[in-house]
């Protein structure tokens, strides 16, 4: 992409952001909506500035830590379980209805159970986030291995690949893009799971902070924390995208050509 | 077993048969026969081409010889043994390119040898061989490209180089040039002839293209419509080495073409 095109994109995005902030400011200034409900951009800015290092950063770090632990566990166990189900079709058949049932359950309903089991703290947040991320990674790993082009299996057989060779040289690399897509999704869902758990019961974290401030009707703080969450989510996505591009850029279509 | 013994005797009697197909029939689950008592042989170092209407079981018979599937009745013997997938003395090139999208072109070319030798690091000689095969198929300079950056025909040429890099004495080729334009096809046919003149491998080659069959083959086998069966066999006694462009001016070539065409057109009538 050309530098001008890039510059245009960033300037344009900034302009949209400024426009939204202006509308927000205007509807309060014109008296259309009471400040009590949506606060104002300037109050939010003041809140963010004053509470950044003492309150926002420690809470954000707590949320991020739980997110990353849950993500790492989802990745490791999700991939392993996905591979296991591919390699042992009987196990897949046996567990299929249970996996489906668990995966279609609204996970927020599990949060109180996790809090009961693990107490209020890091483990219960991680548990809820893991219960989301694990299935995402498992499903994408399984699907990636299963949708392999049959001609490659024919090639493998005609060349006399051993089971291990076929696995490491053909099926595993074939599944990599699909596994990556699953990991990216799992990262965002881990964040979601952690914040949800924090909102229900927690001592620290962005979710807990939002519950506290909305309880005392401090909309400037609530809006400010929402903005911090949005920034965190975007940053996580960008990091995941650039890792993916660096690792697979050479042969997947998804990276080089289509990303902004 | 008894059958096997008699075949061994046949072998000793005439020149060595590397591929023997005897009365092979096959039908896919619950359908009518796909291959019906097909019999033919391919001698060591012989170039045999099978032509026949679409769906007559050509790919099926090649899959059986390659050991990828088992025939229901009849006997197949490849270099004295029953077929088995993954034998190093048999290389199989499919109608589809079957390249690995995450490997560069050169690493795709090396893939077959890599599996056969079990070593990720090819010897210097093999590497040079791979490079020269790439330039033979008109792809020198594309070694570092990825398959998705190549056209369909270019990918098929990579697959050809991969097949040829394997030192297997028996080559099974299923319409390898079917998807190529006339000019590329001519170039590759000429290249294939050159390679064959050099190593005299045993080739069993399938095509729809009669001109291609005559240019390449020692013998052309004509298959009936489904269920497939060898209907006739024509010796191509054109002198070797052959120059495909020169052949076009040879009256003998046109005579053979006419003969096969007449045989085939009987089969093509619906
Ligand atoms: N896996 C399969 N299951 C069922 N029927 C099959 C299968 N593979 C092939 N057939 C049938 O067997 C017959 C022979 O198929 P085959 O692929 O060997 O034909 P072919 O001669 O190679 O045709 P073409 O020239 O079009 O490649 C066809 O009529 C096809 O419908
Ligand atoms: Mg076929």
Short description:
Chain A has helices at residues 3-29, 35-38, 41-87, 89-104, 111-118, 122-146, 150-159, 163-200, 206-215, 219-248. Chain A folds into two domains: 1-38; 39-259, MetI-like fold (Orthogonal Bundle).
Question: What features would you describe in this structure?
Answer:
The complex is a heterodimer of chains A (260) and B (270). With 260 residues, chain A is mainly α. Chain A folds into two domains: 1-38; 39-259, Orthogonal Bundle (MetI-like fold). In chain A, 83% of the residues lie in helices and 0% in strands. Chain A contains ten helices and no strands. Chain A has helices at 3-29, 35-38, 41-87, 89-104, 111-118, 122-146, 150-159, 163-200, 206-215, 219-248. Chain B is an alpha/beta fold. Chain B has helices at residues 2-13, 58-65, 105-117, 124-136, 152-165, 182-199, 210-216, 244-247, 251-268, and strands spanning 17-26, 35-43, 47-51, 73-78, 90-93, 170-174, 202-207, 219-223, 230-235. In chain B, α3 packs across α4 and α7 crosses α9 (251-268). Chain B is globular, with a radius of gyration of 19 Å. Chain B starts with a helix and ends with a helix. The model of chain B is unreliable at 1-8 and 10-14 (pLDDT under 50). The interface between A and B is medium-sized, with 19 and 21 residues. The structure holds adenosine-5'-triphosphate and magnesium ion (MG). Adenosine-5'-triphosphate (ATP) binds at residues 28, 31, 34, 54-60, 226 of chain B.
Keywords:
heterodimer; A: 260 residues; mainly alpha; MetI-like fold; 2 domains; 83% helix; globular; disordered C terminus; B: alpha/beta; three-stranded antiparallel β-sheet; disordered N terminus; binds adenosine-5'-triphosphate
């Amino acid at each position: 992409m050309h530098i001008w095109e890039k510059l245009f994109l960033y300037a344009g995005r900034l302009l949209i952001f400024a426009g939204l902030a202006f509308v927000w400011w205007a509807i309060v200034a014109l008296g259309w909506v009471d400040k009590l409900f949506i606060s104002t951009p300037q109050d939010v800015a003041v809140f963010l500035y004053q509470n950044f290092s003492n309150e926002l950063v420690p809470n954000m770090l707590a949320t991020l830590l739980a997110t990353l632990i849950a993500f790492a566990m989802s990745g490791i166990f999700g991939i392993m379980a996905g591979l296991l189900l591919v390699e042992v079709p009987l196990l897949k058949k046996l567990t299929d209805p249970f996996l489906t049932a668990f995966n279609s359950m609204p996970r927020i309903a599990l949060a109180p159970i996790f809090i009961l089991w693990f107490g209020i703290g890091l483990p219960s947040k991680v548990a809820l986030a893991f219960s989301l991320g694990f299935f995402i990674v498992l499903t994408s790993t399984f699907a990636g291995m299963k949708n392999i082009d049959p001609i490659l299996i024919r090639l493998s057989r005609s060349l006399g690949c051993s089971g291990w060779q076929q696995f490491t040289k053909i099926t595993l690399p074939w599944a990599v893009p699909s596994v990556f897509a699953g990991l990216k999704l799992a990262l965002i869902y881990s964040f979601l799971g952690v914040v949800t758990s924090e909102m229900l019961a927690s001592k620290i974290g962005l979710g807990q902070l939002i519950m506290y401030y909305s309880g005392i009707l401090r909309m400037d703080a609530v809006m400010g924390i929402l903005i911090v969450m949005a920034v965190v989510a975007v940053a996580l996505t960008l990091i995941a995208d650039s890792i993916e591009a660096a690792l697979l850029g050479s042969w997947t279509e998804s990276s080089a050509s289509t990303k902004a | 077993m008894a059958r096997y013994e008699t075949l061994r005797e046949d072998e000793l009697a005439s020149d060595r048969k590397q591929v023997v197909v005897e009365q092979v029939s096959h039908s896919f689950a619950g359908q009518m026969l796909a291959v019906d008592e097909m019999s033919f042989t391919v001698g060591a170092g012989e170039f045999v081409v099978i032509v026949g209407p679409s769906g007559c079981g050509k790919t099926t018979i090649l899959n059986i010889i390659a050991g990828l599937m088992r025939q229901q009745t009849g006997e197949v013997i490849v270099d004295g043994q029953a077929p088995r997938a993954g034998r190093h003395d048999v290389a199989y090139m499919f109608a589809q390119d079957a390249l690995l999208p995450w490997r560069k072109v050169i690493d795709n070319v090396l893939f077959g040898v890599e599996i056969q030798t079990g070593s990720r690091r090819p010897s210097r000689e093999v590497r040079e061989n791979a490079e020269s095969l790439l330039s033979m198929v008109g792809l020198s300079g594309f070694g570092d490209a990825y398959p998705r950056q190549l056209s369909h025909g270019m990918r098929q040429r990579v697959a050809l180089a991969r097949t040829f890099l394997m030192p297997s004495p028996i080559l099974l080729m299923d319409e390898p040039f079917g998807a190529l334009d006339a000019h590329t096809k001519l170039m590759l046919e000429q290249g294939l002839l050159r390679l064959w003149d050099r190593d005299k491998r045993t080739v069993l080659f399938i095509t729809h293209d009669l001109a291609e069959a005559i240019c390449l083959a020692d013998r052309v086998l004509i298959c009936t419509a489904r269920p497939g069966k060898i209907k006739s066999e024509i010796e191509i006694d054109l002198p070797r080495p052959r120059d495909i462009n020169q052949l076009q001016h040879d009256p003998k070539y046109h005579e053979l073409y006419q003969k096969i065409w007449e045989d085939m057109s009987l089969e093509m009538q619906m």
